[in-house]
Amino acid sequence: MEKTNNTNGQTFRVKLQRFGSFLSSMIMPNILAFIAWGILAALFIPTGWLPNENFNEIVGPTLNYLLPLLVAYTGGKAVYDTRGGVVAAMVTMGLIVGADVTMFLGAMVIGPTSAYLMKQVDNLYEGKVPAGFEMLVRNFSAGIFTAIVTLLCYVGIGPVFTALNNILTSGVNFLMSNRLIPLVSIFMEPAKVLFLNNAVNFGVLTPIGLEQVAEAGRSMMFA
Questions:
Q1: Residue 60, H or E segment
Q2: pLDDT per 10-residue tile (average), the chain, 223 residues
Q3: Residue of 199, 145, 158 whose CA lies nearest to 64
Q4: What's the pLDDT at 54?
Q5: What is the C-alpha separation between 104 and 69, in angstroms, rounded?
Q6: What angle do CA 139, 140, 142 make, to 5 degrees?
């Protein structure tokens, strides 16, 4: 019995590590875009080294739209090739507009999920479409599916991620106000073992830090 429990535990850990690796695979190809954005922000925001009102106009849209969409596209493409990536990006647009915070975490969840659902929809009529109508059916079915899911993300899922972000922000603020920041390691170190550290970093801590930078000009998250 004990051996069986150990085997089950190891299997669960392996699956969790694979999941963590998949989440990391959405972030790593886009690191160069994050670095480019970071350079622009460090230089040109009002509290930056070379404040510039015109160049600063690039910073906000890149953060709120481009970076989450890149993450979503990468995750969707990993699940269902280019078709999945395009669906993931469009669906995530509804999520971004429907939320009040930067949607890295939402993009990492909704992007691959929507691509997987699109794949299942395509499987429903695989081999059942008359010859010559395949492209028409595929495009219209994907367009209808994506439009519906985009609206669902805007109405229902975006606010959920906003609420989740607010809860996480409150937790981090509590740790900061009580000088308990080292306790974050309790969550981060196991996350590293399970390859979930990129998900925690970019999905949770980065949006919180960016919000603090926007309000106060600096954040301990980037210390």
A1: helix 59-61
A2: 56 69 80 87 84 90 92 94 95 90 84 95 85 85 95 87 73 69 62 56 66 60 59
A3: 158
A4: 94
A5: 9
A6: 65
pLDDT score for 6: 57
What b/e readout covers 70-102, taking b as 16+ CB neighbours within 10 angstroms?
Answer: bbbbbbbbbbbeebbbbbbbbbbbbbbebbebb
Backbone angles phi, psi at 206, to 5 degrees: -60, -50
Sequence-distant contacts of 180-183: CB under 8 A, at least 24 apart: 181/220
CB 69 within 8 A of CB 93: yes
pTM of the model as a whole? 0.79
C-beta of residue 92 within 8 angstroms of C-beta of residue 107: yes
- What is the rounded CA–CA span in Å between residue 219 and residue 223? 7
Give the count of beta carbons closer than 10 Å to the beta carbon of residue 201. Answer: 17
Contacts of 138 (CB under 8 A, 6+ apart): 122
Distance CA 137, CA 125 (A): 9
Q: C-alpha angle 8/9/15, rounded to 5°?
A: 90
**Residue 201, both tokens:** 């970093």
Gap between the Cα atoms of 15 and 67, Å rounded:
27
